Amino acid sequence: MELPKLVDGFVVNDTLIIKAQxxxxxxKSDSLFxxxxxxxxxxxxxxxxxxxxxxxxxxxxxxxxxLGDLFEDSARWSSFCxxxxxxxxxxxxxxxxxxxDVILKVIVKELFVxxxxxxxLVMDSLYSxxxxxxxxxxxxxxxxxxxxxxxxxxxxxxxxxGMFTLVDDVLLLIEKVALEALSLKDEKDPQNRTERxxxxxxxxxxxxxAKSEQKVNGGAADMEKRAKRKQ
Length: 231
Fold this sequence. Notes:
- The chain is mainly alpha-helical.
- The chain is built from 7 helices and 5 strands, in the order ββαααβααββαα.
- It has a 3-stranded antiparallel β-sheet with strand order 3-5-4. Strands 1-2 form a two-stranded antiparallel ribbon.
- Helix 1 (38-72) packs across helix 5 and helix 1 packs across helix 6.
- The termini are far apart.
C-alpha cells in the first residue's frame, strides 16, 4: 500500500505505524472501559464515529420499540398499569433501581462484538456517557445549572452510590420513551459532532493527567513528611 493513501495519524516520518490495542474492562469505577491510546482513540473517532452512533441508536430504538408496543396495546398496557399501581410503594422504589455494574454488564454484552474495531470505541463511548450521566446527576443534587440542558435530552435515570435509579415513575417514563422518536444530534453537521467528541477526549485526558500529577505530588509530599519524622 502506498503511504500517500494511508490516513494521517498512522504514518510517522514516512513509516507506517501499526498499534495493537487490547480491551480491558477493569473493576475500578474510575478506569472502567478506558484503555485506548490517546492518538489511536482520536483516529477511531474520526473513522468510526458514525458506525458507533448507529450501533448505539439501533439498541436504543430496539428497546424503545418494545416499550412502544406495550404502550400501544391497550389491553396489555392497562394490565401493566393495574399491576404497577397495586405494588407497594417501597417495592416499586426497589424495582426502579439497580446496581450500576449489573446494568453495565448487560449493555457490554449487547454491544461488544469480539474482534470488531468499533467495539473498543463503543466501550470508550459508554465510559464517556457514564461519566456525563454521573456529572449530570451530581449537578442536579447540588442544584447547579446544567449548561447543555437545552441541547441534550433529559436523562431518565440518575447515577449515585453505585446505583442507576429512574428519575420518575415507571408509567410516566414508559409513556415518554414510547412517544419520543430518537434522533441524532446535529445531524446536519457531522463535523461538529466529531469536533465535540475530540474536545471531550482532550478534556478527559487533561483531567486524567492532572489527577495523576496530583497523586505523584501527594506521594512525594508523604515521603518527605516520613523522612522528616525519622530525622
